[in-house]
Design brief:
heterodimer, A: mainly alpha, MetI-like fold, about 0% strand, B: 8 helices
């Protein structure tokens, strides 16, 4: 092997990677936040709603989960503006796409959690005279969140990794930073041997943080 | 518009074949490696199990897109020259294998160790115990999540379009770029991916229902 490692060029452009990672995290956090709202709302609607509501939510979930994220990203960024008269930049477009994508996964997680709440708990809430809204707020939602914590961690990590797809529409996150350095300095092996640990460490840090929450709150 | 889409279908068809080839190869290779390494991580001594754990934990922590670029651009730099098709299949196989290892491990661990011991007691060798006692039972737990990983492999295969392979995703991009009918083409593409993967998910649910007679 006569490849000469040269990390100088990577450190010279390291700001691209560091800020890229920050943007990756920003994309993930915003998309997850919106996705959680979508997921919660639709999970509640699915559990409470009639056949038509369930069918519509099911269609959304199945469609999004069975189509590659990269195709959805292209569809929203290149496709939608040809028919809808709205202007948005690549970053906004990607956040919108990842939110809708996250929502589809989170509906399923939350729905499973809501269905796993022991019947006795909601009955007890009814017995002490809580209104349906109070039961939701004080009994069902907290219990559901504790049940779904472990599967939430997995979904969140996946979504963080999925932010790398934003590079295909030139959102300057971490994967894009890697490609930029790759194409401009040709230090291919070096840049990816720096970027890969950045993804790994960040992912495991997120996981560790969520594990702490789990240990504190999860239902055993 | 519809004329253009109908006309474009022949290009999409050849892309679909490539997507099928990539996914098929990845799924097949990952199944073989995943089952062997999954058994290794479950029953092997620590010096077998730990490297496999390290492999799965590392691979599963890297975005597929980064993995594909790393393999595609990185290997030629260290003088391993693969065609882009082979590099893409290799990268996706690494990812899918890591997934299958975890699924196999979960399925094998779900079988009570008394089963293994009973096999030992009647004098079966390790391979016989695996083949006749544990694997047939573990298969039921393995199939549904494995089909989900097949769906992931098909979805992941769309990323090979980024390294110049003309799969379904890339042929959609090419036709969209030529006809300026971006939205309808993306929708058609989405529907094709949906049809494949929804078919697989339905199969998975059917298998799950069929094999649900085993209860803990």
């Amino acid at each position: 092997m006569d490849y000469h490692f040269n990390f100088h060029l990577i450190w010279r452009h390291f700001d691209k990677l560091a800020w890229g990672l920050v943007l990756s995290l920003e994309l993930a956090v915003i998309a997850i936040a919106i996705g959680v709202v979508i997921g919660l709302a639709l999970a509640l609607a699915h559990v409470a709603g009639g056949r038509l509501v369930r069918l519509a939510i099911g269609a959304y979930v199945e469609f999004i989960r069975n189509v590659p994220l990269i195709l959805l990203v292209y569809l929203v960024y290149y496709g939608l503006p040809t028919v809808v008269d709205i202007v948005y930049d690549a970053k906004t477009s990607f956040i919108a796409t990842l939110s809708v994508y996250a929502g589809a996964y989170l509906v399923e997680v939350f729905r499973a959690g809501l269905l796993a709440i022991p019947r006795g708990l909601t009955d007890a809430g009814k017995a002490i005279g809580l209104t349906p809204f109070q039961r939701l707020l004080y009994v069902r939602l907290p219990t559901m969140l504790r049940i779904v914590l472990p599967s939430l961690s997995n979904t969140f990590i996946s979504l963080f990794k999925d932010t790398s797809v934003a590079s295909v529409i030139a959102v300057p996150e971490l994967a894009y930073g890697a490609q930029w350095i790759n194409f401009n300095t040709f230090r291919i092996v070096e840049v990816y041997s720096v970027v890969t640990p950045m993804y790994l460490v960040t992912g495991y840090l997120i996981l560790g943080l969520l594990r702490l929450l789990e240990r504190r709150f999860a239902v055993r | 518009m519809f004329g253009k889409i109908l006309y474009s279908l022949q290009f999409l068809w050849s892309g679909l074949i490539v997507t099928g080839e990539v996914s098929g190869l990845v799924v097949g290779l990952a199944l073989v490696f995943g089952v062997v390494l999954g058994a290794g991580v479950t029953y092997g001594p620590w010096f077998v199990a730990w490297p496999i754990r390290l492999f799965t934990d590392v691979i599963r922590g890297i975005p597929i897109l980064v993995l594909i670029f790393f393999v595609y651009y990185g290997l030629p730099a260290v003088h391993v020259n693969l065609a882009s098709f082979a590099a893409a299949v290799l990268a996706l196989t690494l990812f899918s294998t890591a997934q299958v290892i975890e699924i196999v491990r979960g399925a094998l661990q779900s079988i009570h160790h008394g089963q293994m011991e009973a096999g030992k007691a009647i004098g079966l060798t390790f391979v016989q115990r695996l083949a006749y006692v544990v694997l047939p039972q573990a298969l039921r737990r393995f199939l549904p999540p494995w089909i989900n990983s097949v769906v992931d492999a098909v979805k992941g295969s769309a990323l090979v379009s980024l390294v110049g392979i003309v799969d379904l995703m890339q042929s959609i991009q090419q036709v969209a770029g030529r006809t300026y009918e971006a939205l309808p083409l993306y929708v058609v593409g989405a529907l094709i991916y949906f049809a494949i993967n929804y078919g697989l998910s339905t199969l998975s649910r059917w298998l799950e229902a069929r094999t649900a007679y085993i209860r803990d």
